[in-house]
Amino acid sequence: MNKYIVLGILAAVLISGCTGTNVTSLANEGVIINLFDATPDNVLEGDSVIFDMEVENVGGTTANNVEVALYGVQDQWRGSNDDVLDDIQSKFLGSLRPPIEARSIPGDFRLSQWQLITPDLPQGIDTTLPVTARVTYDYNTSGFIQITAVSEQEYQQMQIRGDVPNVPTVVNSNGPLKLDAPTIASSQFIILNTQGDEEIYTHPFRFVLTNVGAGFPVTEEIGGNFIGAGGRLKGTLEVLGPGVSFYDCLGVQSTGSQDVTVIDFDEADILPRVRTNNQANIACTIQFDLDEWGDRPEDTVMFVFNIFYTYFTDNQVSVRVTGR
To answer: Is the pLDDT confidence value at 187 over 90?
Structure first.
């Protein structure tokens, strides 16, 4: 074989090996801890231990204000100057972009490292010390729910023809919070009573935001008089469709002079918070202006959500320390 052909093949192999990238993209996570370990993990009192931590954005949106920290070391472990640490050991990493699978581009990842000296232990003591690594970041979940609305007359004709309206569509971006609507799934579609004299038709919905990730949302509360257990969600919920608006949603109501189509969570009377069963429930009733709906047989209603929150996840290692 011609030596130039051989060299070309070798070059192609080397290039493919250098550019080949494993892209990790997870539907139910944002920033994950790829690695957290302690080296060595079996030491004598006074020895140094290196903690390595790698985090990666594997979700669908950019993570902002990413911060990593070690817990279980303050007022116990010592720094390089042999002084006892007087605060949490944290590092600010900035923003991490999400992966782009279509281009084989992985999400941003960062490696952090701490070198610490074990706590003072008297001779004869042998114990295991847990150290927790936590990554905290600001994240965003967006998407939409689309459902078919039909007039009463059109629905009756569909029954005669043996047709059924399209089933609801639910789309979420990758991330640790997911929006669903179980009442939509059970009813499948909206039938508008367009045969009567009413100008407005109302229909109730229950939306559920579920924490499906490995951590928990810890968004700061508004003001000082609210509970501080975390779980608060920020963002908006919007309804789109012909003559459609919110009749009542999270305490926000449409009035005769103004139809509400966008709910800002920060301005709502009821703040969505992730609570029991890792869920946040949002109860809404929408309304249709039947004059604006007119004589159309069928159309679609879309709920567009854009949720913002601070989220954390953590991992733990143990270091065995023997006094001497």
So the answer is: no
Q: Tell me how far apart the alpha carbons of residues 47 and 118 are, in angstroms, rounded to a whole number.
A: 6
pLDDT in tens, 109-120: 999 999 999 999
* Per-residue pLDDT tens digits for 216-267: 999 888 766 566 667 889 999 999 999 999 999 999 988 877 889 999 999 9
What's the whole-model pTM score? 0.86
Are 107 and 286 contacting, i.e. CB atoms less than 8 angstroms apart? no
* Domain-wise residue ranges, the chain: 21-138+312-322, 140-310
| Domain 21-138+312-322 is found in CATH 2.40.50.840 | no
Q: What is the 3-state secondary structure (H, E, C) of the chain?
A: CCHHHHHHHHHHHHHHHHHCCCCCCCCCCCEEEEEEEEECCEEECCCEEEEEEEEEECCCCCEEEEEEEEECCCCCCECCCCCECCCCEEEEEEEECCCEHHHCECCCEEEEEEEEECCCCCCCCEEEEEEEEEEEEEEEEEEEEEEEEEEHHHHHHHHHHCCCCCCCEEEECCCCEEEECHHHHHHCCEEECCCCCCCEEEEEEEEEEEECCCCEECCCCCCCCCCCCCCECEEEEEEECCCEEEEEECCEECCCCCCECEEEHHHCCCCCECCHHHEEEEEEEEEEEHHHHCCCCEEEEEEEEEEEEEEEEEEEEEEEEECC
Asked if residues 238 and 144 have their Cβ atoms less than 8 Å apart, the reply is no
Residue 321 burial class via C-beta count within 10 angstroms: exposed 0-12, middle 13-18, buried 19 and up: buried
Look at residue 18 in the predicted model and tell me its pLDDT.
43
Return the structure tokens found at 68.
């990593």
Enumerate the β-bridge partners of residue 320.
Answer: 42, 128
